């Protein structure tokens, strides 16, 4: 049998092309200490803490804290590592063995065993759950072998399969509590992770407390972890300086610079892709000419100057100097006249009516509001094209993203792992809510999954990326870099997923 996670070695090598972590060096603080509260602030809140609906976007962080994850993507080593599961191994990329940790229980006493994993995955398959994890669950079949073992089968060779157990299929809730609570489980979850859910004041904060029975003792070190919602970047930064929060999340580089100058610590997490928009492939935007027109109207530099002055812009899908960089995957030049011709042609084919599109963004952030306004002005430079801004709260935004009820939507790809390309853009991808379907992209991403040679996989990813740019599936104006800014007495902060940290690793130096 291959060593734990050994079958994903080829995939692991690819992660260096898409991710990086930079931390501020400081003197060692000695051994981790127990006790205290860490409060993290972000601009929106989780849409759900139910395993079948939280494994996308904003909900991933709180769910990891409550349920733990079967596997983790380590942003420092750029490897997939064990979590609630001890190992996930395969010799051929099709037949996999998932080994769980023995003796683990949910906080209600229910065994965290193979049957519990099977129950949760089966629940994700239920269409009535509207689970974003359903597509991932449909990619595999599984069989309980014994209390700590599942046999997992992929119909095709897929060396990227472990990624599915870090996000879409990562979170396992107590079957007993799910069956007893029904719909109420989404607001009073029961897991076996490092923290226990205590309260959630919507739009304000979620409070979690240390799970004394967590398998990885002495973690978690802190007694309490709080997710606080503060929409405006300046307000979060002021709250951090005032000691009202301990860690703030931000995607604007200027705050990282200000924080360093003020003696605060900064951990940064570079992700695949960037901050921009995803375009739906249904309705008016199913027309390739209209999509191309939008690509010609978007001015990255104008958006960056208006909302992110002095920060790095994006000229290519992958930045120069990274292994997946491809000079052919370059955003098109601004061309208002060319866009106008394409819009006129579309209107002529569709009765001459004005084209009205929606742009879904999150509410409450002045920076994102400014982005929306600039984007609206840019698209409306073409006569007959109108963009309506729909600013939604966290739950509403997540609902729109998962349901595909948008024309354009604020979007980043969600992490550093290149499998995110499959998740978002493959016809059968678990996160393909835009209904994008392109045989060239599908074949390339399938080749990347089946490749045992990293060079072959790299070439396949580049093919997919070039086609995504050519068909305007996604457009971003600045690289996605998440900054975690923390007070000097907080240690052990490691970024994970898109905007979060692993709270069980954090501790406070008194």
TrEMBL record:
Family per similarity comment: Belongs to the bacterial solute-binding protein 5 family.
Species: Nocardia testacea
SUPFAM superfamilies referenced in this protein's UniProt entry, alphabetically: Periplasmic binding protein-like II
The keyword Transport is assigned to this record: yes
InterPro entries: Peptide/Ni-bd, SBP_5, SBP_5_dom
Superkingdom assignment: Bacteria
Coiled coil feature spans: none
Keywords assigned by UniProt, alphabetized: Signal, Transport
Signal peptide limits: 1-22
This protein's record includes keyword Signal: yes
This protein's name: ABC transporter substrate-binding protein
One Pfam family per UniProt: SBP_bac_5
Solute-binding protein family domain mapped to chain residues: 79-425
């Amino acid at each position: 049998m291959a060593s734990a996670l050994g079958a994903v070695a080829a995939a692991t090598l690819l992660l260096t092309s898409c991710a990086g972590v930079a931390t501020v060096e400081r003197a060692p603080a000695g051994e981790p200490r127990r006790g205290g509260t860490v409060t993290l602030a972000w601009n929106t809140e989780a849409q759900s803490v139910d395993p079948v609906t939280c494994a996308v976007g904003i909900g991933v962080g709180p769910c990891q804290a409550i349920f733990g994850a079967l596997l983790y993507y380590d942003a420092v080593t750029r490897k997939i590592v064990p979590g609630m599961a001890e190992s996930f191994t395969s010799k051929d990329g099709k037949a996999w063995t998932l080994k769980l940790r023995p003796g683990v229980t949910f906080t209600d006493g229910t065994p965290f065993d193979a049957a519990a994993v099977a129950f949760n995955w089966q629940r994700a398959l239920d269409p009535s759950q509207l689970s974003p994890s359903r597509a991932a669950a449909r990619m595999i079949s599984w069989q309980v072998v014994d209390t700590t073992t599942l046999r997992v089968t992929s119909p095709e060779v897929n060396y990227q399969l472990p990624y599915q157990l870090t996000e879409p299929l990562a979170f396992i809730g107590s079957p007993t509590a799910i069956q007893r609570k029904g719909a109420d489980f989404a607001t009073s979850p029961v897991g076996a992770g490092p923290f226990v859910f205590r309260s959630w004041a919507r739009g304000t904060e979620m409070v979690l407390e240390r799970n004394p029975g967590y398998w990885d003792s002495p973690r978690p070190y802190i007694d309490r972890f709080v997710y606080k919602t503060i929409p405006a970047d300046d307000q979060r930064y002021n709250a951090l300086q005032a000691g009202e929060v301990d860690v703030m999340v931000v995607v604007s580089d200027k705050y990282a610079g200000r924080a360093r100058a003020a003696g605060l610590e900064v951990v940064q997490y570079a992700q695949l892709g960037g901050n921009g928009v995803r375009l739906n492939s249904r309705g008016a935007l199913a027309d390739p000419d209209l999509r191309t027109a939008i690509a010609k109207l978007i001015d990255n530099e104008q958006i960056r100057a208006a909302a992110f002055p002095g920060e790095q812009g994006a000229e290519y899908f992958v930045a120069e100097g990274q292994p997946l960089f491809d000079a052919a995957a370059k955003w098109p030049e601004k061309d208002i006249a060319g866009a106008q011709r394409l819009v006129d042609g579309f209107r002529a084919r569709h009765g001459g009516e004005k084209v009205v599109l929606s742009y879904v963004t999150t509410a409450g952030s002045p920076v994102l509001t400014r982005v929306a306004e600039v984007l609206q002005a840019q698209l409306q430079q073409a006569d007959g094209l109108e963009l309506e801004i729909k600013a939604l709260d966290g739950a509403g935004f997540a609902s729109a993203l998962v349901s595909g009820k948008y024309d354009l939507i604020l979007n980043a790809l969600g992490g550093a792992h290149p499998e995110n390309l499959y998740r978002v853009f493959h016809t059968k991808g678990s996160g393909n809510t835009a209904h994008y379907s392109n045989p060239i992209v599908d074949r390339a991403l399938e080749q990347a999954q089946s490749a045992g040679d990293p060079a072959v996989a790299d070439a396949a990813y580049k093919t997919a990326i070039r086609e995504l740019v050519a068909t305007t599936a996604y457009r971003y104006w600045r690289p996605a870099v998440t900054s975690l800014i923390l007070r000097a007495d907080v240690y052990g902060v490691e970024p994970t997923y898109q905007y979060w940290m692993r709270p069980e690793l954090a501790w406070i130096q008194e």
